[in-house]
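A common beginner's mistake is to predict each chain separately and then try to dock the pieces by hand. The better habit, illustrated here, is to supply every component at once so that their relative placement is modeled jointly.
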Amino acid sequence: MQTDHENAPAPREEVAALPAYNAGITFAAARRISGRNDIAALASNENPYGASPRVSEALGSLVPSRYSDPACSALRQALSEKLGIVPDRIVCGNGSEDLISALCRAYLRNGDIVLTISPCFGLHEIEAMAAGAQLVKVPMTKEFDYDVDALAQKLALGPKILFISSPSNPVGAALSRQELAPLVDAVPPGTLFVLDEAYFEMVDPGYPDGLKFLNERQGVAWVVLRTFSKAYGLAGLRVGYGVSSHCCIARAMRACLTPFNVNAAAQIAAAAALQDRDWMQETTAKMRRSRASLADRLRGLGIRVVPSQANFLFLDLETDAARVAGALLQKGIIVKPWMETGYTDHLRVSVGKAEDNERFAQELARTLALA
Ligand code: PMP
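With all components supplied together, the output reads:
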């Protein structure tokens, strides 16, 4: 086996110091560890009902030997019609994570401040750090709400980027209109507000559509990120999009992406999935019902469950969550123990199908000696 080579150049210091992204455990690894075939995959917030049947039909037209459209023209046009926003303000990515990375490369210089919340989605931190930024994190309140006053105060520092996910990963809270309005008002000139709405389709009625809200505001520079990985069930194909307040922001992101960043299968699949609105709405409605039942079931066991607007729940286990996740893995259940400082007693579990949710609840109760 080859070991590290003394003649290899050292990576940039920022890169050597990066925290690892906690990408979770594959089915294959879970099978090996548990010795079981029936894995309950409840760690990556995927859509347990899969994708619209129209996706596989549309993929019949795929020509693998041809490069994909570097401009994602058809998909951006379809998004433009759906959202009422010109295609020049829309950029597609190899997953929305591609766009987080492009934004950091496009805007951040060494020492720039990036403002976010804690706990936060790992890539908001890792990509910013990789670009040399200095991270300022505002903790959520004890009740796991956004601390808008504290964020507004820190915005006065003039961060280059503000990253907020709503619904938040990992907590599940979503910004209400009363929270979003003062937050947007506090964004100073020169700061780019990146609102990551990966779980936008999962929220209950009454929450604002962040994109519509921002689009009606003047004078703020923003990007809204969305994805086909969650509600549309296309996580494996990797496709997301960003909508920006100004064409110049979209151009800057595009300049920092590789030319053929969204593969041909992903472009075809996303356009087909977008057309089947009914299917997406049915599966997200099912998920919402399962989310409520799973939360009730876990609360019934005495576990503190944070109210969630996403397709996952954040649980305060009051004990080391990594140990609990390890025990569940032995039983063939994959969940995500949160590794961020201050939150390591918390576990994030995706809402799955009823049988997997119940299996998780039972094994969790056993592991915590609650049953
Ligand atoms: N943003 C948030 C808040 C997420 O939770 C995720 C996926 N876990 C992403 C972005 C990236 O998703 P994708 O690259 O699959 O679009």
